[in-house]
Amino acid sequence: MSDEEVRRVSDALDAIEQIADVEQRVRAKSQVMAAQAERNKEWSRERDELIRRLNGEEGLSYRQIAARLAIKLSTVQAVFRGYKGSGTTRPRAERSGAQDG
Predict the structure, then answer these.
(1) Residues 53-91 pLDDT 10s
(2) What sign for the dihedral angle of Cα 88, 94, 95, 99?
């Protein structure tokens, strides 16, 4: 996607936030959120596949991948750790020797 396309999407989202009638604004935001939720799985799958390819086939480091794709290093790391979702929904790591209280 070009910078121009990203700007147009951002402008459209800004326009929704400027809808004066709160009910119409919330309705529009809800429609956009629902549509994006459908896209998120495919977008994440495609991103994850590219991250793995850049590492496996091109030999790029995690940092190089993050810089090339303009994403956080932690996002690249999460792909290889198998994490999905936000940090609040990730399973806690097991601690050896930890006791239940």
Answers:
(1) 999 999 999 999 999 999 999 999 999 998 766 555 555
(2) positive
Spatial distance between the Cα atoms of 38 and 42, rounded to a whole number of angstroms = 8
| CA dist 69 → 54, 82, 83 (Å) | 10, 19, 19
Would the pTM count as exceeding 0.85? no
* Cα distance between residue 86 and residue 78, in whole Å: 10
* CB 37, CB 47: distance < 8 Å: no
Measured CA distances, 34 to 14, 19, 22, 37, 61 (Å): 17, 18, 18, 5, 35
Q: How far apart are CA 55 and CA 80, in angstroms?
A: 10
Report which residue type is found at 47: R
In one-letter notation, the amino acid at residue 36 is Q
Cβ(16)–Cβ(28) below 8 Å: yes
